[in-house]
Amino acid sequence: MPVQSAGTVWMVRPSSFGFNPETAADNVFQQPVEGLSAGHALAEFDALVSSLTSAGVVVEQWQEPPWSGCPDALFPNNWVSFAEDGRVVLYPMMAPSRRLERRPEAIRSLQQQGYSISAWTDLTAGETKGVYLEGTGSLVLDHIHRMAYASVSERTHPSMVEQWCEMMGYEPVLFHSSMGGVPVYHTNVILSIGTTWAVLCPDAIAHAEERSLVCSALESTGRMVLHVTPEQVRSFAANILELADNEGGYLVACSGSAWRALTAGQRTALEHHARLVPAEIPTIERFGGGSVRCMLAEVFLPRVKY
């Protein structure tokens, strides 16, 4: 049976983190807060790495070059994914500033660490047509049942979702969602899927038929589906990620704000399936408009056998 959760993540340590007005146009989570600095973000990044490593997750890092000038570089899951068959997929990004994050030398650093890459799939030609698919921000994947959930937005075009699903052998589950009348920019802020659980904000799904479709699809897999509110989503309660630890167990990586937004009962329900590992990243959340899940590119690549 395919595994749902990776035991290794790839992270990009930023050198130019900051508020990006180009992406703020459709990301209601971004806030140009005074008094927060790139230094705060680096400290938060390093603390998250330490928390995950201590919890038994393998963390591979790549240092963003100081001259790159990419304010969102610490969110690599939007431009690359690493599949269990050795495929690396590069994704079309809506913001021109984010396209600069795609660096072949960054991927080669994983090869140098002993990960096997069998093929490269480049979907970035979509940028010339104005159609985008921002990695596992746009796609929330049920690897076990080969289903790809995607909320349609400017950053998640249905034709790109269908192309990805045909290529990778997944069934698309497309729907529309919004927060405060604004389309949700990335699916992974309202939905997360673990091995035996899922977290969903059904109130964000605009149409009743689509809401029923998503809920039924999740429930049909036998998962415990935990519903969160739009208010909890604003604290990134659904922007969480299940990972495998080095002892055969599971953990849920989340931010401190997400952990506090969940009720005691919701935390208990999740902890029946995986232990929660929170990390404080307020600077990254407010400036960047993304949380812990956005910072983690899962590495399912096989290791080279000598």
In short:
This protein has 306 residues and is α/β, with parallel strands linked by helices.
Q: Helices, strands, pairings?
A:
Elements: E1 8-13, H1 21-24, H2 38-54, E2 58-63, E3 80-82, E4 87-90, H3 96-99, H4 104-112, E5 119-122, H5 126-129, H6 135-138, E6 139-142, E7 147-151, H7 158-168, E8 171-175, E9 178-179, E10 182-183, E11 191-193, E12 197-200, H8 208-220, E13 224-227, H9 230-233, E14 241-244, E15 250-255, H10 256-261, H11 264-271, E16 275-279, H12 282-288, E17 297-298
Parallel strand pairs: 1-2, 4-5, 7-8, 12-13, 15-16
Antiparallel strand pairs: 1-17, 3-4, 6-7, 9-10, 11-12, 14-15
Tell me what the structure shows.
The chain is an alpha/beta fold. The chain has one domain (8-298): L-arginine/glycine Amidinotransferase, Chain A (5-stranded Propeller). It has twelve helices and 17 strands. The strands form six sheets. It has a three-stranded mixed sheet with strand order 2-1-17, with helices on both faces. Strands 3-4-5 form a three-stranded mixed sheet, with no helix packed on it.
The fraction of residues assigned to DSSP E strands is: 15-25%
Q: Please name the CATH topology.
A: L-arginine/glycine Amidinotransferase, Chain A
Domains, number = 1
In percent, how helical is the residue content?
25-40%
User: What would you call the structural class?
Assistant: alpha/beta
Which CATH class applies here? Alpha Beta
Mean pLDDT: 92
Note poorly predicted spans.
none
The largest sheet, given as strand count, sense and whether it forms a barrel, is: 3 strands, mixed
At the fourth level of CATH, the homologous superfamily is: L-arginine/glycine Amidinotransferase, Chain A
Strand order of the largest sheet: 2-1-17
